[in-house]
Design a protein that fits this description.
mainly beta
Length: about 120
C-alpha cells in the first residue's frame, strides 16, 4: 500500500474542496481507509473512515453532515468531499489504511500513511 493525498488548497469559509487519496499498491480494496488531520500545535485527529467495501462509514462529530467519505476500489481512490468549510477545518489532511484497525478513530491503529495535503480555510 502506497498512499498519496491530494486536492488541498486555499478556500474561503463556506466553500468546498474534494480531497483524493490514491493508492499505488495492489491490495487497496482490502483495507479500511481513513482521513485524519493535524492543525499546527495540535494532535492528529480523526476525520472520517470507510470500510473496504464502502458500506460502513464513521465521521468525527465536528464534520458530520458537512464531509462525506467515499471510495472507488476500481480506481484505488478514496475521496473526502468537504462542504461548508470553516476556518477551524484548516489543517494538513492525511489518508491512512489498515486491514483490521481495532478502532477506526485511533491513528495508531493504521499501518499505512500517505503524505498530507494542506487545507487552508480563510474567514
Amino acid at each position: 500500500v502506497q498512499l498519496q493525498a491530494c486536492g488541498g488548497g486555499l478556500v474561503q469559509a463556506g466553500g468546498s474542496l474534494r480531497l483524493s487519496c490514491v493508492d499505488s499498491g495492489r491490495t487497496f480494496s482490502n483495507y479500511v481507509t481513513a482521513w485524519f488531520r493535524q492543525a499546527p500545535g495540535m494532535e492528529r485527529e480523526f476525520v472520517a473512515a470507510v470500510s473496504w467495501k464502502g458500506g460502513s462509514k464513521q465521521y468525527a462529530d465536528s464534520v458530520e453532515g458537512r464531509f462525506t467519505i467515499s471510495r472507488d476500489n476500481a480506481d484505488k481512490k478514496v475521496y473526502l468531499q468537504m462542504n461548508s468549510l470553516k476556518p477551524e477545518d484548516t489543517a494538513v489532511y492525511y489518508c491512512a489504511a489498515d486491514d483490521q484497525p481495532r478502532s477506526w478513530q485511533q491513528p495508531l491503529e493504521y499501518q499505512y500513511w500517505g503524505r498530507g495535503t494542506l487545507v487552508t480555510v480563510s474567514s
